[in-house]
Amino acid sequence: MARTDECRPAQGGGAEVGVVGRQVYQGGGAIFCPVRQIWCVDAIVDTPYLVAMTQYELPFEGPFAVDDLPDLWTPREIWVRLTAQMMPHFAESRRIDYKGGARIDFADMAKYLSAFSNTPDGGVLVFGAGSDGVPSGCSTLSTDQQNRIETCHTSFCPEARPEFRRIESTVNGKKDFCIAVYIPYIGRLVETNKQEAWIRYGDKIHKMSDEEKQDFRSTRQELTFELSVAPYVYPDEFDLALIQDFCDGFRSRERREEWANDEILKDRYLLVDVEGKLRPTNALVLLAAKQPRKSIPGCRVRVQRFAGESEGSGVDYAPLRDRFFEGNVVTIVKAAAQELDEIVYDVTWLNKDGKFETTPEYPRWAWFEALVNACVHRSYSFSGTEITVKLFANRMEIESPGGFVPPVNERNLYHTRAARNHHFMDAMRYLGYVQMAREGTRRIKQSMENYSLPEPQFRQEAMHGVVVRVTLFNDHITRKRASDRDVALYFGVEVWKTLQEHEISLAAHVYRNRIIHVSDASRITGRTWATSKKDLERLARKGVLEFVSGSYTRDSKAHYILKERSQS
Q1: What's this model's pTM, rounded to 2 decimal places?
Q2: Which of 46, 310, 491, 564 has the most CB atoms less than 10 A away?
Q3: How crowded is residue 437: how many other Cβ atoms within 10 Å of its Cβ?
């Protein structure tokens, strides 16, 4: 390709298009002008001048080079390369925000300095443009105001480290300029002069609560919640059998058979020596305390089952199941997993081989790993908020307080590792709950694939604080719960004929869910607890159910299970 130095209008014969610029390339009967990013054909070239040309616009016409991928540019790349022509192509997002240039609110600017300083990769703030990126200019600002933009952070947000450049623009046919501010991510909490901390989510900034600020600091190693000394007496207020299991697991894996339990706990940062006394850290409280909610109120899990695809509200809010599980994390995981085993339905579906298969509506590995991940990776700094597990007709949601730990995000979580509670997670590994190698999220994805179910969703959301939500979809449209005909055939038609309508509802519930409590029966039929107890006893006498006793009359552990049918 030959190069000409400039474009100029035609001198007879061709259409005058007024393309002016340098570095115009000619070849194959066409010319490419990188200034305008266009190809021109029917050109008459008189080196070193380019004359008359007819413009032919290809799809890549615009302010970017052919091989540019602006959607992948980091905020700093945007700041370095940004032109007035590019600005309308960058919508407001996590990376960039626009502010008008007629009047500057420096208190508002401080919020953005804090927000982008606290957001991984930072961000760009452009003064002198509308929210659509169209330049409006800053020429009306006085020299004092322009200087204050560049010095604002020293008074309003001292820990921010902004960089500034001016971008030439044209507004109403006159030369003007915009001021672009690059605000880098600092890696520690950056607050305004009002002790407020902000963070960027999408195209909005979010004011962080005290709990969010504490969590932010702990995930950036400014302080560590799990290593803080806890107000407990060791060993009196701890489950010593559980601690023994942990220490045995450590000795076996690390070949430290000669180490005493206290040596192991100190080595793993679960105990610390404070003025000659062994004091437990929050990590040990989470692992093995008898009553961790004394100092960590959010250390519990709530499990709910709803009939439809939403929770409902007011009089329509009526979960089929709603239980809390408390204690140390090991106890919580065991109890919540047992509950989920009971309330996850069995469904029948056609597999890829064309055969019907009956399985739980979600693979156990998927929800169990999601539950463990939530318990291990959640922010316990959010003291009053528990983990929630909600089952709907079409999905299961596991929600844990706290956001992703940088550099982990929704896009790289299968390949990137970061831990909020590293020492606690390490302790859970010795008990066999955690692999510590991104294994949990990969196993969730793989087990859903094995069931031919949609890929799990991982989302970070800012609601009442920041949460991470894992959603598992069950494909309820094609996968049906067992039919009444299946239920009747299981028990036998003759037995089925003897059952009353409310007894059929109870028997069908047990067939589909494998277990029923008296409280479940009362909720299903609308009858009293005492009457429901008699209903279940009657079904047990008919050979439909089998009673599993508890320790006392209304023991919550007492329940009924499906009576195994005769194989004859």
Answers
A1: 0.56
A2: 491
A3: 9
